[in-house]
Amino acid sequence: MDDEHGRVFREAWISGVKKYYPGEPKPGYIAPWEETPEWERRAAAAVYGQVRGFVEVSEGKTAKLSREQKGRFVALCWIAQIHRHFDSPKPSYAADWEALPRWQQETDADIFEHIEQTL
After folding, report:
1. Source organism's superkingdom (predicted)?
2. CB 106 within 8 Å of CB 71
3. Summary count for the chain: helices (H), strands (E)
4. Of the chain's two ends, which shows fewer C-beta atoms within 10 Å, N or C?
């Protein structure tokens, strides 16, 4: 099940990157699931689970959150996973919401909404 959830997260990420990234995205940004590093697969599944749990305990009221709030939630969950998998991550890997490029903010909001709509 985690693999399936991680794939859902990854597919939403790739879709967002293709939609919002200015210019040609880095190959790693749109690499298929099979080429995604193991740590990133585990992180994707974990964040999917966190979003799913948040939606469930909120009894679907997350629909009332703004896109920014939804994106911030995904970004914060991702930062926790970065710290879980890397002792000293590059600052850009653990950047707070305000430091993220607009394309990444929009992609994170789309990820939340995609998970929310599939529940």
Report:
1. Bacteria
2. yes
3. 4, 0
4. N
